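RECORD TYPE: protein structure
NAME: MFS transporter
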Amino acid sequence: MSHSRIVSYMNIAHFIDHYAMLIFAAAVIVIAPTFGMNYGELLPYATPGFIAFGAGSLFSGWLGDKWSRRNMMGIFFIGMGLALAGISFVQTPIQLGAMLLLVGIVASIYHPVGTAMLVSNVDKLGKEMGINGMWGNVGVATSALVTGIINEYFGWRAAFWVPGLACLFIGLLFLRDVPRAADRISKKSAAGMARVPKSVMAWVVASLIITIIASSITFNSVTVALPKIFQERLSNLTSNTAALGTITFLVYLFGALAQYIIGNLLDKTSLKNVFLPLAITIVPALFFASTMTDYGLIILAIVIIAAVFGQVTVNDTMLGKYTIDEWRGRAYSARYFLGFTAAGLSVGLVSILYNQGGFDLMLKSIAGLSLFTVLGAMIFPQEKRIH
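PREDICTED:
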């Protein structure tokens, strides 16, 4: 059983995870009128699913460590296929919310289990985290693009059952190609080597907690709201949902590229040297984007997405370096429980801020919140480089 094959499936799973969680964010524009509702009214029905995305990770990571990471990932692929296909049959907002909750529960498996499985099978942690992050964010980008196109030409129900069938097929291939013995594979990797003195580990933990909560709310708020922001603010350029999906896709590709570049940088320089500039960049970019339209907004959106997505690679690499393999699933489950639970609350936050003051208020508020990420970066200690 090759390590590279396991890594490949984990990259595909990361793509699926983010693609699946953001189908609704792109489709809600089309779904809301069919239920006689507006965007702000229907969006909160996704909140339980996003909270489950984080809360479920605690149990998922524990099961992965104690039972089987391979089997948990099999459940992820098959379960996601069934859950997405099921959404295409819903008839009421309550049914939609219930199925989105199921998607969130299944989606909670990947990050604690899949990331731990990935880290155990790589040598260059930063580089592979960057590549893996790239797959996840191409999933985010492709979700906006493909969902926009399917919504426009085939209807919103097809936007769920088509990827659902693809997940089922990939799941069957995974169970065939990755044997149960994969759980025993644990390569000696670049991960799990503490690179700061034990005396300052408390600052590492404090930095992680502050950063994970603040950056996760920022990440999710931006990715959930971006299709609607573009629909409102790019109206002088286009109103076609497929075209808007294409623009969103291209913006997210810059985020994926940033993750690849940042992942490689993390193998060559200290975390703080990458962490702090990224954190600082996010704040003014969000603030100025609050009043931008058309091409200016697209340029600032690229900066925001690149910085926010790069931050995810930094967070995951930080955790990978400071945990041992036996506990890694549980460590990542705690990280994603904090992050995605905070992110789940951000869906309601976007809805409230949007209803109170539109995206002007929402983006300025998220810019203010992002100052906590800067604080987290500032208190993070410098590493001792190991050559």
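COMMENT: Residues 325-369 form the longest helix (45 residues).
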